[in-house]
Amino acid sequence: MSDQTDNKSRIVFLALLPVMVLLASETALFYLQQHLLSFVAIFSFAVLSCQLAIQIVFVKGEICNGQRFRLVKVNLWLVLYWAGLLLLGTMAAKRYIPLALLIGAALLLLITVWQQPKEDIRLQRGILLFGTVCGILGLFCYVAILLNLPLQDGLIYSPFSQLLLGLIVANWQLRLSRNRLQGFLALLPRLMLLTLLLNAIYSVGILLALHVNLLLPTISSSAFAGYFALHLVLGILLFWLILKQKVLDLRWLSLLLLLTLCLPLLLMSAYLPL
């Protein structure tokens, strides 16, 4: 009995770990940017991407009810992140409607995952389809957020770096719930490497656009150097993991999570007032 309790506590702790890391980062940045009128969450698209990746597993994956139940339990802890964003949003000087709509869409997606029936497959697919539509609407909300940001903030809120982070958290949840979709799990590191490459191209494109429009912010070149050096480190690590056919266990995923988390934080630190 004691071993079972310890194992459950360990699973809960590990399920909470990435959620708490992301929420702690959002909270720290919120207090460091209190001069801004509205609060725009940096990692909201990452968490939404994670939910949509898990949604693919629920809709398309051939998994038994045991795997489905374990994945639902792990996935539901993401509600703490969205609840934290709601709380931070209420403390901002001005409410930001696109972010509020994104949070609402993400919460509806979580509710459909939680309420999916086990026996009635037709009803299950209908509920999951509704959740998928909510998730897609959340994506449109994030696009609206991006379009309303200054061009230089496009680096910090890059959809590709957030997608990479979301894929890592999704992989984390699949491993923790002991999911057996080996083909999908093997595909994820390749998608991560592709997303990292797209983020590097996107970042160069943003910098070129800033240069053409004479909008390049006066920040240290060391921040940009560290940003692209981190791309190189992540790229080499992912390529090696794929080449050696390494299993992305929680230790590797912890390292990838930490490194990817540093991508926007490196640039954000350059913008923060001293």
Main beta-sheet strand count, sense and barrel state: none
**What is the string of SSEs from the N terminus onward?**
HHHHHHHHHH
Question: What's the number of structural domains?
Answer: 1
Care to count the β-strands? 0
Helical segment count: 10
Low-confidence segments: none
Radius of gyration: 19 Å
Give the structural class: mainly alpha
Report mean pLDDT, rounded to a whole number: 88
Portion of residues in beta strands equals: under 5%
Distance between the termini: 52 Å
Based on Cα principal axes, name the global outline.
globular
Range of helix content: over 70%
Describe the structure.
The protein is an all-alpha fold. It has helices at residues 2-32, 44-60, 65-75, 79-91, 97-115, 121-147, 159-176, 182-212, 221-243, 250-271. 32% of the residues are buried. The model has no long low-confidence stretch (mean pLDDT 88).
Task: Please provide a brief summary of the model.
Helices cover 77% and strands 0% of the residues. It is built from 10 helices and no strands.
